[in-house]
Write a structure and sequence with these properties.
Elements (H helix, E strand, L loop, with lengths): L1 E6 L28 H7 L10 E5 L4 H7 L7 E3 L6 H15 L4 E6 L3 E2 L2 H18 L2 E6 L9 E10 L2 E9 L3 H9 L3 E10 H11 L1 H4 L2 H5 L3 H7 L5 H6 L5 E6 L3 E2 L7 H4 L8 E3 L2 E4 L5 E4 L4 E4 L4 E6 L2 E6 L6 H6 L3 H4 L3
Parallel strand pairs: 1-2, 1-4, 2-3, 6-10, 12-14, 13-15, 14-16
Antiparallel strand pairs: 4-9, 5-11, 6-9, 7-8, 7-9, 8-10, 16-17
Helix pairs in contact: 3-6
Length: about 350
C-alpha cells in the first residue's frame, strides 16, 4: 500500500516575525486561507487516507498539528532531537514497514504551495510506480521557471521507461550564471518530493549512509530514542540520494513552490495591478512591488517600492525585497529580546 510521510518540523525563521516556534510557517495561511500543512493532507484525499499518513515533527509542534490535521495521533512521530531529514525519513519508513510489509512511501514537506492537487497526485503515483518497477529511490524534478540559486538541481541521465530517467548528478545551490546554464541543459529543480519502497530505502542506507545505518538495529527493535542517540544529523539528499546509484527522476507537471522566504508570496498570492501583495488592514498609496502582511491595526505605505513590510507578534519588520532570502543574517544581528518569539 501507499504511505505518505509529512515532514513538519522546523521553525521557519525566514518568515519572522510572523512565524514563531509555536506557530511556524507550516501552520500559517501563507498561500491561501488554510495552512500549508492542512493543504498537504487535503491534496492526498482519495489517494492516501489519513490513517496511512505519518507526520514527523518536534514535541512543541505536535499539539497544534494534531489539532489542525485529520491524522490519527498514533501516526505522529515526535523526534527526540532534530537530526535533519535523513533520520526522520528512515524512522518514518521503518514505521510504515512495521505496519505494512509492502509499504511504498511518498515523502513531502509541509510548507509547499501546490496549485494543482490532481496533477500532484498523478505525479506522486508515477513516482511510486517507478520506485516499485525499478527498485530505485525516486525524486521528482520540477522544470525551473527562473535561475533560482536557493534550490538544488538534478541533471537527468539515461532514460529508464516512460518519463523516468536515471540521475547523472545533483548540483546544490549554484550561482545565477550556473543556474542559467543548467536550465539551458535541461536540469530540473530537486523538489524534495521523494518516493521509494520501504525495503529499498533501508538497503541504500545500509550501503551508503553510515551516519544512519549504525542506528538501524535500535530502530528496528522499536527504540527510536536509542536510534536518535546513535545517528548523526544528515539530510536524505546528501546521505542517500547523492551517494546511491539506484536513483531515478520523474518530472513534476504541476505548479510548485516551497514558500521559502517572504519573496515567495509574490508567486503564490494574488498581486494588484502594481505588483503588490497585501494581507490584513493595509492601505497603499502609489506603491509598487511590495509585500505587506499586517496582523495589527491599519498600516499605511506611501510612495515606496520593492519592500517587505510585516507587522505580527508585536514586531514590525521593514526589509528590502532583495534581502528577503538573507533574513537570517538580520535576525542574527538583533538583540535576543527583540528577535525571540514564543
Amino acid at each position: 500500500m501507499h504511505w505518505g510521510v509529512l515532514l513538519a518540523g522546523g521553525s521557519g525563521t525566514r518568515f519572522w516575525p510572523l512565524s514563531s516556534p509555536s506557530r511556524p510557517k507550516q501552520l500559517l495561511p501563507l498561500a491561501g486561507s488554510r495552512s500549508s500543512a492542512e493543504e498537504a493532507v487535503d491534496r492526498l484525499a482519495g489517494f492516501i487516507p489519513p490513517e496511512r499518513i505519518l507526520v514527523v515533527t518536534g514535541a512543541a509542534l505536535a499539539p497544534p498539528l494534531q489539532a489542525a490535521l485529520p491524522v490519527p495521533h498514533a501516526n505522529y512521530l515526535i523526534e527526540p532531537r532534530a537530526a535533519s531529514t535523513g533520520p526522520a525519513l528512515v524512522w518514518a519508513t521503518v514505521e510504515a514497514l512495521r505496519r505494512d510489509p509492502d509499504a511504498g512511501v511518498i515523502s513531502m514537506h509541509a510548507d509547499w504551495a501546490i496549485r494543482d492537487p490532481s496533477a500532484f497526485v498523478a505525479t506522486a503515483a508515477t513516482a511510486l510506480d517507478t520506485a516499485a518497477r525499478h527498485a530505485r529511490l525516486v525524486t521528482v524534478g520540477m522544470v525551473p521557471s527562473r535561475p533560482e540559486t536557493g534550490f538544488g538541481y538534478i541533471v537527468p541521465g539515461e532514460p529508464l521507461d516512460g518519463a523516468a530517467r536515471s540521475v547523472a548528478r545533483f548540483i546544490e545551490k549554484p550561482d545565477a550564471a550556473r543556474a542559467l546554464d543548467l536550465m539551458a541543459d535541461g536540469a530540473l529543480w530537486n523538489s524534495g518530493l521523494f518516493a521509494w519502497r520501504a525495503q529499498d530505502l533501508l538497503r541504500e542506507v545500509r550501503l551508503h549512509t553510515p551516519e544512519i545505518a549504525t542506528g538501524l538495529p535500535a530502530l528496528e527493535a522499536g527504540d527510536p530514542i536509542a536510534f536518535f542517540e546513535g545517528v548523526r544529523a544528515v539530510s536524505i539528499d546528501v546521505g542517500v540520494f547523492e551517494r546511491s546509484e539506484a536513483i531515478a527522476v520523474v518530472p513534476g507537471d504541476f505548479p510548485w513552490d516551497d514558500i521559502g522566504t517572504w519573496e515567495a508570496l509574490a508567486r503564490v498570492r494574488p498581486r494588484d495591478r502594481r505588483g503588490n501583495v497585501v494581507h490584513g488592514a493595509v492601505t497603499l498609496v502609489e506603491c509598487s512591488d511590495c509585500i505587506v502582511w499586517n496582523d495589527g491595526p491599519p498600516l499605511v505605505l506611501s510612495g515606496v517600492r520593492d519592500l517587505v513590510v510585516v507587522h505580527a507578534n508585536q514586531r514590525t519588520l521593514v526589509l528590502d525585497r532583495a534581502r528577503a532570502p538573507h533574513l537570517k543574517h538580520t535576525l542574527d544581528a538583533l538583540p535576543e529580546g527583540v528577535r525571540d518569539l514564543e
